[in-house]
Amino acid sequence: MRRPTALALLLAAALTACGIDDTGPDPAGPAASGMPRAHDRSAPAVHVYFYSATGLERVSRLYRGPDARQRAIDELVRGPDAAERARGLISFVPATGAGPTLTVDAHGTADLYLPPTWTPGRTALRQLVCTAADGSRTTKVRLHPPADGPPTTERCTR
To answer: Signal peptide position in this chain (predicted)?
Structure first.
């Protein structure tokens, strides 16, 4: 039978004693929560809908001011900016003349009035309805055609 050598005993002692006491966890304060955000540094935005290769896409644009709902429609009519075009976003909404007018009543009903010179296609109407619905926090938008015809109720389907 072999006797343990001094080197083997020293190695066994080193492996069993790592020098850390079994004291349990130390309290370290509250959990990390990130940097607090100043209330005056909020970044309000309006949302517009453009098309990409994968379909309708929601885009945020910074805006602080009155009538954010109408501003969203105005931004949609303005079309994608250079960075958005570089990402492949396009718009089917005509960018000429006066754009549509969006109103929202006290009950939250959104009414979108198209200008008399407009004859937008179904794809452009979908962009308009989704932008109006997003800004109005509703699912339905009453679309008033340029002619004297009755309004139709449209839903945003993405």
So the answer is: 1-19
In Å, how far are 7, 25, 26, 59, 151 from 19, measured between CA atoms? 20, 16, 17, 57, 80
pLDDT tens for 69-81 read 899 999 999 999 9
Write the single-letter amino acid at 137.
R
What CA–CA distance (Å, rounded) separates 11 from 19?
Answer: 15
Closest by CA to 151, choosing from 96, 103, 106, is 103
pLDDT digits (tens, 9 = 90+) for 46-68: 999 999 999 999 999 998 888 88
How does pLDDT run across 15-57, given as a tens digit for each residue?
555 555 566 666 666 655 555 555 444 568 999 999 999 999 9
Smallest Cα–Cα separation from 74: which of 51, 106, 108, 97?
Answer: 97
Residue 134 has a pLDDT of 87
For residue 149, what is the DSSP state?
P
Neighbour tally for 132: CB within 10 Å: 29
Look-up: residue for tokens 């979108």?
A: 112
